[in-house]
Structures are given as structure tokens and as C-alpha cells.
Amino acid sequence: MSSLLNTVLILATFITFSNAQCTTGSRFACANCSTVSVCSYGGIQVDAFRCDSVNASLPFCSGNTGVCKSAPEGSCIQPSELCPRASDTFPNPSNCLQYIRCDAQKQAQTIRCSPSSYVYDHSTRSCKLRQTSNDCFQVNCALASNLNRWTSYRPAPKLAFYCSIAVGPMTFECSTGENQVFNVVSRSCVFGCPSEGRFPVPDDGTKYYQCARGVYGVLVAQKVSCSAGLVFDPSLANCTVAASTTTEPATTLVTAGSTTAVDTTELTTSPAETTTSSTATETSTSN
User: Fold this and answer.
1) Confidence (pLDDT) at 202
2) Cα(5)–Cα(76) distance, rounded to whole angstroms?
3) Of 56, 98, 99, 266, whose CB neighbour count within 10 A is largest?
4) What does the buried/exposed string (b/e) look like for 55-65 if buried means 16 or more CB atoms within 10 Å of the residue's CB?
5) Residue 263 burial (CB < 10 Å; 0-12/13-18/19+)?
6) Residue 13 region, left (φ>0) first, then alpha (ψ -120 to 50), else beta?
């Protein structure tokens, strides 16, 4: 009876450690990034233990040797949640006196500004003298009210922080498109007015954004469509006739070698009316 029980226990042990990476001739191997397998010479796992259960300062299992180390290696290297992009610097969400330097593998290194009167400035990727309270922007993810909550990074709104209960502070960045900002309500990147004026709509040359001051002086974007047959020209900040590919004089705006300018006054659109609503709307301009 006892021999049968021992057999069952051994089989249960083998099933429990079925994901081991034991190979013939190896006595120790990594079962995963944090667990060491104890192996027989025949490649059977007979036991396993977590690295941090032996030494908290050596929590990672390294390679095929089953050696515990202080830092992960190879495929076990996980990008830092504070590094939305490799080989760049980002603010430390919880401390404006520090910044995060991300290497090519998105591993984070925390660096403190010096002297202590300096704070991180993301626009210059360096530290500057703190002159007002607005120069320091940080989020305390330890507060219950901030847990599982998005916060836009006011000094550079293309960045946003998320205080995750599971993994701690996370940094997100709008990395595509000009004048993109992170909208914490829609949890996506949207157009943000850099100033008053007209700006092109990416991937749609027939539309543009009209930016004007709305309620409380806040810049509001309104998407406007050019009249039929017109496209938006960023250099003119206006709608105009698209460049023609035909050689007929009646439809060619500029002829090679010609010094005659075509009057396009009637082809440009009139300024679009803007609204003070915080929600962008879409209208068409008149000829």
C-alpha cells in the first residue's frame, strides 16, 4: 500500500512540473524565468523551486544552467511599464524630481535631477530649475482614488499615466501623427490644437481642423470639410484647387515656364464658423 502511495506521489510530482526544461545530462535548468528545475540525468524533473524563495536579491533564473541571478536575461527580459518607447527618456509618474531613461530593450533606469531644486522637463529631455508649482507634475499611484485611473501628463499631453493595481504606474505615449494628444476619456490618441489656426487632417486632404478659443479660453478643434473639388493646403492654411495632372490650359494652374499667375481668389473657401462646444464637429465650407 505504501509503495502504491509513493508511486502516486511521484507521478503527481511529474505532472506538476510537466513544463520543466530538463535535458539529458543536466541536473538544474530553468522551468521559467523565475523557477529552477531539479533534473535527473535522464532529463526528468524531480523537484522545482522559485529563485526568490532562496535569495530575494536573485529572483531570476538564467538560461539553461538553472542559476539564479539579479537581472533577467534573454527572452525573460520584459519591457518596463514606464518605457512606452525605446532609447528615450520619460517623466517619472510619481516623482517630478526624477526621470526614466529607457534603453534599447525598454529597460528603465531612474535618474534624479541635480541639484534638488531642478525638475524634469520633457520638452527638452533634461532637468530645469523649478520656478512655479506648475513645473512639477506627478501622480501618487498609492492613493486609492488614483488606482485604475488615467491621468493626462499636463506638461506634455501626448503622454498619459495609468495607475494599475496589478503592475503599478504605467506610461503611455501618442507616437504617431502630428499634434496628437492622449484623451483619457476615450483612452486613445486624438488631435489636439497646438494654437489657434487651421491644421491638416491626417490621411484626408479634403478636410482640416479649425482651432479657436472656446469656453474659458480653451482651444477647441472643429473638423471642417473643403468644398467639392478643393483640398486643404497647409502652406496656405486654406482650401484650394488640387494640383492638376492634365496639360490642357483651361485646367492647368501652373504651366512649366509660365510667368502668368492664375487668380484663385474665388476658389478659396471662406473661414468656417467655429463653435465653443468641447466636442469637435464637422462642417463644410462654402466656395
Assistant:
1) 86
2) 38
3) 99
4) eeeebbbbeee
5) exposed
6) alpha
**What single letter denotes the amino acid at residue 101?**
R
Tell me the mean pLDDT per 10 residues along the chain, length 287: 44 42 84 92 92 93 86 86 96 97 94 96 96 94 94 94 95 86 92 93 92 89 93 94 57 35 34 38 51
Instruction: Report angle CA 38, 44, 46 to the nearest 5 degrees.
Output: 45
CA distance linking residue 176 with residue 257, whole number of Å: 39
The pLDDT of residue 283: 55
pTM for the whole thing?
Answer: 0.62
In whole angstroms, give the CA distance from residue 93 to residue 163.
Answer: 9
DSSP characters for 91-107?
EETTEEEEEEEE-TT--
Structural contact between residues 222 and 275, judged by C-beta atoms closer than 8 angstroms: yes
Helix (H) or strand (E) segment spanning residue 29: strand 28-30
Give the integer Cα–Cα distance in Å for 188 and 241: 33
Q: How far is CA 99 from CA 27, 62, 77, 227, 262, in A?
A: 43, 29, 21, 48, 55
